[in-house]
Design a protein that fits this description.
The structure holds two protein chains of two kinds.
Chain A (H helix, E strand, L loop, with lengths): L4 H24 E9 L2 E5 L2 E4 L5 E3 L3 E4 L4 E6 L4 E4 L4 E9 L6 E15 L2 H5 L4 E5 L2 E5 L3 E6 L2
Chain B lengths: L1 H7 L6 E6 L9 E5 L2 E5 L4 E5 L5 E5 L2 H13 L6 E5 L10 H16 L5 E5 L7 H21 L7 E5 L21 E5 L1
Parallel strand pairs in B: 7-8
Antiparallel strand pairs in B: 1-4, 2-3, 4-5, 6-9, 7-9
The chains are: A alpha+beta, B alpha+beta.
Chain lengths: 151, 189
């Protein structure tokens, strides 16, 4: 009797997690892959996850592309980021208030190439969007630009 | 010879930043900040090459360099979001005739895109205070979300937002009833 209890509880917890997951996953989603070509994956809390068209991203995910990889991501504030081959792009902070358009968007291009079209966060607050590269920090006052991280 | 050498000196070891004009030809501003200060880029195709020791070299990017270095990243850009604006018949839950056509175009645009998702954004006119307009605009967005779900759009592809009175289509004085400002926009990504 006692030995079956943890199983029941675990099943219950699982059932709860399944019931809650779609909602909470959506609440944490900040962006989606719209383009994924060649080798592309995500790193999330130490785990490596496959990235395909439609895969959602969360704040603090890192996008990694291989030698033949490239990926395009649309954020919920309509910022568009895309990376070329051999790239590592870490989303370090992302918050967006869809009523006031206030937010913060900090990312770090550690390797490779990045194309950016800024969205509502940068439009609302000139200092809210920052892109870090190995040598410097870019303050984004709009709107379209390209970045390569040196070797 | 010296020039050629200088040109070849560690060309890819520096970071490179290129400011582009946007789709309408407007040019934004980037501030490149490092330990030695900041550099402002605000003209089309202006570049900053920055080294980790804080050195910055300004210049202009050619189309061929942009294509060579950034071709793959640019080719992977998602399509630009498109905005559809919808109106209700006054005092009803029905879209206007024109908006019914707009809904068809919106659904077609969603179908055309890969893994499309949308934000439904409600707006009010400038009558009444912020909090009640925020609630009202979010209610309007929620109504449109239900209608779109009824038309087959999966609920998990829809975010709703209430912008209240912050973004009038037609600028008016405070307190002016303006039906064109009472609208719902749908941003398709």
């Amino acid at each position: 009797m006692l030995s079956t209890r943890p199983v029941v509880i675990r099943r219950l917890l699982l059932a709860c997690a399944c019931a809650i997951l779609p909602v909470s996953a959506w609440a944490n989603d900040i962006a989606q892959f719209k383009v994924a070509k060649g080798a592309v994956h995500l790193e999330r809390s130490g785990q490596r996850l496959p990235a395909r068209v439609g895969t959602p991203l969360q704040a603090t995910d890192t996008v990694v592309t291989g030698a033949d990889g490239s990926a395009g991501i649309a954020f919920v504030d309509n910022s568009l980021l895309s990376v070329g081959p051999n790239s590592v792009l870490a989303i370090e902070r992302y918050t967006f208030n869809s009523t006031t358009h206030e937010g913060t968007f900090e990312s770090s291009l550690r390797k490779g190439t990045l194309a950016v079209v800024s969205g509502k966060i940068a439009k609302q607050s000139p200092d809210a969007m920052k892109v870090k590269i190995p040598s410097s920090i870019l303050g984004v006052r709009g709107t379209e630009f390209l970045v390569r991280a040196g070797d | 010879m010296a020039l050629a050498l200088a040109g070849c000196a560690t060309p890819s070891s520096r970071d490179l930043v290129v400011l582009l004009p946007d789709k309408d030809g407007k040019v934004g501003t980037l501030i490149v900040q490092n330990q030695k200060g900041s550099t402002v880029l605000n003209t089309a195709y202006a570049t900053a090459r920055t080294a980790r020791d804080g050195g910055v070299e300004r210049g202009m990017a050619s189309q061929s360099e942009i294509k060579e270095v950034f071709g793959s990243a640019i080719a992977a850009q998602p399509p630009r979001p498109i905005l559809f604006t919808l109106y209700f018949e006054s005092g009803s839950d029905e879209f206007t005739e024109q908006s019914k056509q707009e809904v068809k175009r919106l659904l077609a645009e969603m179908a055309r895109r890969q893994a499309s998702d949308i934000t439904v954004i409600g707006h009010t006119d400038l009558v009444g205070p912020d909090p009640s307009n925020d609630a009202l605009s979010l209610q309007r967005a929620g109504r449109v979300k239900s209608m779109l779900v009824g038309m087959g759009v999966p609920a998990e592809r829809i975010l709703t937002a209430g912008r209240g009175r912050r973004e009038p289509l037609i600028p008016t004085a405070n307190g002016v009833i303006e039906p064109r400002n009472r609208r719902v926009e749908v941003s398709v990504r």
